[in-house]
Specification:
Length: 210
């Protein structure tokens, strides 16, 4: 059972935004269910950080930006294969706002990602070229954090990439699986589980954190 170190642990909440919840443009099945769990466990952490998808209109990964293309198709981008998505989390829209019931008043940082029109950013640490940083790793190191606990949406995309990058950046990394939900696109949930375990990401539930 992980024991929280209030000086060196941080709770990283990924993209709990209206467009990823019920009725949203890219709703994750049962996505709303993570909110009460996140609110409860957040009270155990002295330090909390939020990430927020923050796309400009006409983002290059929106299917609507490509004539004849449909959401969830894959295209080649300069940085590699890229899934096309419905328009979602457009800057200054209701869909981009955090879920109204998310209650983390003590959050110390909001990391906005995906604001580069030409490249997506699943991870809270890097854009999808895997080389352009958001600055989060440097922030966490300067603050002296050693371990990251992740929750949010979606387990198999933005939580997945954030967890793998956290490990690669040298942080001990734990994902609270009951505080996440998956899109599960063509088996992506099972693939995400395998990739996390292979990378050394710890998987546990919120009731196992003391």
């Amino acid at each position: 059972m992980p024991t929280i170190d209030q000086n060196h642990d941080v709770f990283l909440v990924i993209d709990v935004q209206n467009d990823f919840c019920e009725g949203g443009a890219l709703a994750v099945p049962d996505g709303d269910a993570v909110v009460p769990t996140i609110n409860r466990i957040a009270q155990s952490f002295a330090h909390q950080v939020l990430s927020q998808d923050w796309h400009p209109p006409g983002h290059a990964t929106f299917a609507s930006s490509h004539a004849g293309r449909q959401p969830f198709e894959t295209i080649a981008m300069p940085y590699g294969p890229q899934t096309l998505w419905p328009d979602h989390c457009v800057q200054q829209t209701h869909g981009a706002a955090f879920h109204p019931d998310l209650d983390l008043p003590g959050a110390e940082l909001i990391v906005r990602k995906g604001h580069n029109r030409d490249i997506d950013s699943y991870s809270a640490f890097f854009e999808n070229d895997h080389t352009t940083p958001t600055g989060l790793a440097g922030y966490l190191r300067e603050r002296g954090f050693k371990r990251v606990f992740l929750a949010g949406l979606a387990f198999d995309f933005c939580v997945q990439f954030s967890a793998l990058d956290a490990v690669a950046e040298g942080f001990e990394t734990t994902v609270l699986t009951d505080a996440c939900r998956s899109i599960d696109l063509e088996g992506s949930h099972a693939a995400a589980l395998d990739a996390k375990r292979a990378a050394g990401v710890q998987l546990t539930t919120s009731d196992q954190v003391a």
